Structures are given as C-alpha cells and as structure tokens.
Amino acid sequence: MAVSEGLPIGALAGRTGLAVSAIRYYEAQGLLKPWRNAGGQRRYQRADIRRLSFIMIAQQFGLSLPDIREVLASLPNNRTPTPKDWARIGAALRGHLDARIDTLLRLRDNLDGCIGCGCLSLPKCKLYNRDDIAQSKGTGPRYLLGDRPDV
Amino acid sequence: MAVSEGLPIGALAGRTGLAVSAIRYYEAQGLLKPWRNAGGQRRYQRADIRRLSFIMIAQQFGLSLPDIREVLASLPNNRTPTPKDWARIGAALRGHLDARIDTLLRLRDNLDGCIGCGCLSLPKCKLYNRDDIAQSKGTGPRYLLGDRPDV
DNA sequence: ATAATTTCTAAACCTAACTTTAGGTCAAGC
DNA sequence: GCTTGACCTAAAGTTAGGTTTAGAAATTAT
Lengths: 151, 151
Prior knowledge:
- By secondary structure, chain A is mostly helical.
- Chain A has a domain at 3-94: Multidrug-efflux Transporter Regulator, Chain: A, Domain 2, CATH 1.10.1660.
- The first copy, chain A, is 47% helix and 5% strand.
- The first copy, chain A, has helices spanning 9-16, 20-28, 47-60, 65-72, 83-114; strands at 7-8, 35-36, 42-44.
- In chain A, strands 1-3-2 form a 3-stranded antiparallel sheet.
- Chain A is elongated.
- Chain A starts with 6 loop residues before the first strand and ends in a 37-residue tail after the last helix.
- At the A-B interface, helix 1, helix 3 and helix 5 of A face helix 1, helix 3 and helix 5 of B.
- The structure holds a DNA duplex.
- Chains A, B: It holds the Pfam family MerR_1.
- Chains A, B: This is Redox-sensitive transcriptional activator SoxR.
- Chains A, B: InterPro entries: DNA-bd_dom_put_sf, MerR-type_HTH_dom, MerR_fam, Redox-sen_tscrpt-act_SoxR.
- Chains A, B: Residues 6-74 form the HTH merR-type domain.
C-alpha cells in the first residue's frame, strides 16, 4: 500500500473520470506504459493522471490518438515530466488549436457570402478550398472537399 | 436526354465530387429523394447538386447526417428551393459555427494558464468545464470531461 | 478462511459514415 | 443485336475510439 507500489487501474479511472476499458485501450495504442506487479496487474505512477488528463484535453482539440502519441513521445521517459515539460507540449497544442480556429473563422467569413447568396456552386465557392478543416474530420475514407476539382 | 429526364447518379457524382456510393448512402439516411425512371434507375434534379454541396459544407461545420437531415427538412418540397431558402438555412448553420468558435477560443484562453503552468489537475482545471466542445465529439459512448467531478 | 471486489485477457460488439463486393439489370454506341 | 459501361440491391468490410462479455486469477475485506 506504500506509494511506491503505484496506483491500480481502477484508482486511475476514478481520478480521471475515464473508464477502465478506455485506459487499457490507450495502453494498447501506445499512449501509456504501466508496469506490472507480482500478480500481473497494472500499476501506474501518479504522473500518469496528468498524462491521461492531457490526452483528454488534446482530444478536445481534435487530435487523434496517434497524433497524441507522437506529442507525448517528446516527454522524457527517464524521469517524471516537469511542469516545464508540459508547458513545452502545451505550446505544440496551441499551434493545432490556432489552426482550427483560423479555419472556422474563415468558413464563417465565407458563409454569408456563399450560402447567403445561394451560389453554392462548386467551381467558384470559397468554402471549397482544400486547405480548410484539419484534414478529413470524420471516420473512414471519404472524398475530401476539393479533391476532385473536375467539376 | 431532355432536361426533364433528370441526372443519373454518376452525373451527380461527377458534379459534386462525391462517390456514387456516398450519394446512395445519403438517400438511405433520408437526405435526398430522387425519383426512378422506367428501368428503376435514380434520376436527380439539378437542385440536388446544391443540396449535396450543402451537405458537404454542413459536415465541415461538424453536423452529423441526422442533424443535416433536420436542417434540410425546412426546405420546401413542393418547389425548387430559392436562394432565399438557402440563406435562411445558412443562418441556422451560422449559429452552430459561432458556438464552435466560441468553444475553441475559450479553450485557447485557458491553454497557457492551465497546461502552461502544469497544473492539469482535474478538480481545478478550467479546461474541464462540461459545456466545452460541442457535445461528445468522437464516436461511441464515452465519459465526457466533467461528467465525473468526484475526483 | 472465505467472500466480495478488482483485475486480467481475448474476442466480440458498437456507432458513424462510408466503401467494397457479388451477382445481376439497364442503357447507349456501333 | 450485341457489347460495354453505368446502374441496381443486399450484405459485408473499414476506421476510430471505445464498451461489453466471459471466464479466470489476484486482492481486499470480514
């Protein structure tokens, strides 16, 4: 029960609000690497609470789990991350967020002019510029807007 | 070949950049109602090009297909929609878009203070306010941030 | 010492938004 | 009149991000 024994998965779930199954799933996706105790059960460090919190926030920002794994890869694995480490990573997120906001603002600027005027015809409509929206939101393969300008 | 015979599905796909299979899928979801010719093949009105364009734009704004179906339901079905009809619908989208932008701006305001300082602890972090992000982005059931404040 | 919780793994299931496949029909060009 | 290409339906497959289930083993509580 000493602190050095680490937190079992249920405790981590309780502290983060995540389901136990989600935490195991994140591990399967390479976002987390708990150790195992003598009986084979997962044990976590306290720092993993923050790691999971970060994952949840990054998801809100629209990052996929592979994206997040990459970002987290820049954390030191030989020591517990410091606030400074997290700040560096926060800055990376900020870039993502800024880009998404810009996209939406641009869409909004065009909305009145485009749908508002009823033009909505693909060849001219500004809403169809390919660099909008952070790459293929939504699941499954799909023709992206602007992918087939042969209209 | 007269205009009154309508467009076959491939033509519609060509003009919108959508896959034929996607257009059939939208019909199955109730977003489109082509008529059938003598041989049982789908025939579309020219106005359906705009309808599909609208669907693509609305998706970029984060609306689900059921959401879009509802919005489209307010179009008149006894006549071809006018630019004015589309403008009314554009205004509805605008509300959605504004909300999404507000959310992201709020997240950005908190980012430096929260991740930046390294606090990231659930009970205090402003990023964990439940009204953030337009309801449960991402598929499948999932605990929403803030849903379990019993941390 | 036993009962009640937790945890374990593997595999199946879930949703959204589509695509792919298979086997057959329709329409258009020569 | 026949071949080629477009179209049809129904069902199964795909991806992301998980959840659910089942049966077994470990831990905790009494």
